[in-house]
Amino acid sequence: MTASAAVWLMEYVPSESLDSQLSGFGAVAVVQAALDALVELQSVGQNIVPSLLPIRVTANDEIARWERLMQRAPIAISGAGAHLAAALRRGPPSFTRTGLVHGDFHYGNLLFRQGKVVAVVDWEIPSFGPLQSDLACLCALALRRRFADARNPAAPVDVDVQQISALARAANLECGDLDWYVAAACYKYAAILGYKQGQHHEGIRVDSSYDGLERSIEGLIEVGLEYLRG
Q1: Among 18, 19, 34, 200, which residue's beta carbon has the most beta carbons within 10 A?
Q2: CATH of the domain at 175
Q3: Taking 70 as the threshold, does the pLDDT of residue 61 lie above it?
Q4: Vertex 184: Cα angle to 124 and 117 (nearest 5)
Q5: Do residues 69 and 195 touch, judged by C-beta distance below 8 A?
Q6: Using CA atoms, how far apart are residues 30 and 23, in angstroms rounded to an integer?
Q7: Is residue 107 part of a domain?
């Protein structure tokens, strides 16, 4: 940073398309690569993360964070979302290990090369929070594959939540109360999509990709409630 300008430095990381990884290595290998990257992220020292992200985020903090967006979604969406938020608040996990959380951990934010993840991008919403949160993002987007009415970063990766969670346990990732965290991730993505759809419809930030998202958003809310019911 100088007195007159800000300088942003970025590293160039050669990578290959997700489609090439799927055709060359298979969907399960792609999921395994993502989980291996998650293990590395979560190995960042506990003495380092608080200095970068000093506020420890609890499970209820996460719900409150996305509730603010959900309240700005179209009324039909925000009303349904309120039921999921209330259900999440009735049974939050009492304790969990915390560490570095990316916050939007999915295949579209991973750069692959030769079957491995070589970089994780889009660090817009990181936190010092529950370790299950990023795994839950992968699971929520796998569940979103049920709804084919909108683009989804997980759409080409045909691996279900049961397979993802089994691979995660084999990798010794934190999986306690995973159903709750998956429901919370469904709420988060429903809130984000609902908010962006509202901005699109109001002409604030027009993006035709947010047309026709109703089924995905409603579906994520329904799936979140389903996971809380067990």
Answers
A1: 34
A2: 3.90.1200.10
A3: yes
A4: 50
A5: yes
A6: 10
A7: yes
On whether residue 7 sits in a domain, the answer given is: no
Per the listing, tokens 């993502």 go with: 34
Output the CA–CA distances (angstroms, integers) from residue 171 to 39, 67, 97, 104, 181, in the order listed: 8, 32, 16, 20, 18
pTM across the whole model: 0.91
Residue 111 CB-density burial (10 A; 0-12 exposed, 13-18 middle, 19+ buried):
middle
Residue closest to 159 by CA, chosen among 21, 2, 6: 21
Angle, alpha carbons 29-192-57 (nearest 5°): 80
Check residue 168 and give its pLDDT.
98
Q: Is residue 13 in a domain? A: no
Instruction: Tell me the torsion sign for CA atoms 92, 95, 96, 100.
Output: positive
The answer to whether residue 48 is domain-embedded is yes
